[in-house]
Amino acid sequence: MRPVARQMEFGFHPVASEILEVKSQDDVGIAEACSRLMGIDDELTAICSRLCLMQDLPDLAARVGVEWNPRMRSTAGRATWPICLIELNTHLPKISQEEVLRTLLHELAHLVTYERLGHGNCSPHGEQWQQACSDLGIPGESATHRLPLPSRKVKRQWKYLCPSCGSEIERVRRFKSRVACYQCCQDSKGGYYNERFRLVEISLT
Fold it and tell me: Quick check: pTM over 0.85?
């Protein structure tokens, strides 16, 4: 297992550096960074399109889009298939422009992998994704990040208690239908619902 410090290292491989110009935080400036925080980012979309063409994926190049998502908190980025949309956390420019581009390539690698193999035919951060990362110029990319992004703490509103084994779960949202303890149902009736193990609802508010 690689040390945590390794996950923060970053350098562009020549494949990516051919078209990616890494600007310093001073070069970008507050106004320019803020202007990119909402909606489709044409510049980053163009970068992704050109990288897809370099990977001989013209269909993906025509469909891919990049936008900033102000609702993201602890998630650095997200790639959605089949609409081929990459969403980036609006806090990334405050960390560094290198981190913006690293996250962009990380998410683009997911779309490249799905385009090559089909969604569902590969694991999210498996060998094929690692190969796509290498092809895009970020070999050895980590599946997770340790970036100083804000986290959201949501108070649990409901507790559910199994009357048989006493196990508890807490949830933000209330169950809309009857729910029973999975383990007790598994042990008793092979996983089928058993009213005897129906969870008891307790409000935490």
Answer: no
Residue 95 neighbours by CB distance under 10 Å: 16
Could you state, in order of their start, the residue ranges of all structural domains in the chain?
A: 4-136, 158-203
> For residues 150 and 91, is the Cβ–Cβ distance under 8 A?
yes
The model's pLDDT over 65-107, given as tens digits with 9 standing for 90+, comes to 999 998 888 888 999 999 999 999 888 888 889 889 999 999 9
Alpha helices in the chain (DSSP H): 4-7, 14-17, 25-35, 42-54, 58-63, 92-95, 97-117, 127-136, 182-189
Give whole-number Cα distances, 149 to 95, 103, 112, 127, in Å: 9, 13, 26, 27
Sheet holding 85-89: strands in order across? Answer: 39-40, 65-69, 85-89, 77-80
Q: Amino acid identity of 81?
A: W
Pairing of strands 200-203, 85-89: unpaired
Nearest to 86 by CA among 97, 101, 73, 96: 101
CATH superfamily of the domain spanning 4-136: Metalloproteases ("zincins"), catalytic domain (3.30.2010.10)
The rounded distance, in Å, linking the Cα atoms of 118 and 133 is: 17
